[in-house]
Design goal:
The protein is of the alpha+beta class. It has a single domain, classed as 3-Layer(aba) Sandwich (Aminopeptidase), CATH 3.40.630. The chain has 6 helices and 7 strands. 25% of the residues are buried.
């Protein structure tokens, strides 16, 4: 797999006080969903500060990637039962397609301690699905997706209907 060399970047774990920085990146980058995901699932801001606080309280650990001192990407990781979930992966619009998301994803995968890693995204987010597939994830069946979303995520039924789940199976060292 070819990966771009990323220069002048730093990956770090956010603290519980970094809500505003995460909020800013998530909500700037999520505009790509507007007009793509079901209209009843879109809102502004896409992720309100209160929802972000709940996600962190529920165990989502956020990591950031700064390039040349600019926070360009955020991504969360959550251990739930016997699996790891990749959550809330966003790259600022002006930094997309430069390998930053892949760099951050690989960092989180190196930290994951489970043999199964899942990511959920919108069915309409074909670019995100392709990104995860390029990085070794495989789509699960609709039946399996429904089971996994109910077991490991806390999302509304409407979001379950309009989402997909991808799985990365790996050997632990």
């Amino acid at each position: 797999m070819f990966t771009k060399k990323i220069v002048n970047c730093m990956i770090f774990k956010f603290t519980s006080n970094d809500f505003q920085e995460i909020f800013n990146v998530v909500n700037e980058a999520s505009v790509v969903y507007k007009g793509k995901i079901p209209i009843d699932r879109w809102r502004e801001p896409y992720m309100p500060l209160e929802e972000l606080e709940v996600e962190i309280a529920c165990g989502v650990e956020f990591y950031g990637l700064k390039q040349n001192g600019v926070l360009a990407a955020v991504m969360g990781m959550q251990n739930v039962k016997d699996v790891t979930l990749i959550r809330h992966a966003y790259v600022l619009s002006s930094y997309q397609r430069q390998g930053l998301g892949e760099t951050l994803l690989n960092h989180l995968l190196a930290l994951a301690k489970t043999s199964k890693v899942y990511v959920g995204t919108w069915k309409a987010a074909t670019w995100a699905i392709k990104f995860y597939q390029k990085n070794g994830f495989e789509l699960v069946s609709t039946q399996e997706k429904n089971k996994l979303l109910k077991k490991y995520w806390s999302i509304p039924d409407r979001q379950v209907e309009t989402s997909v789940v991808l799985e990365l199976k790996r050997q632990l060292r």
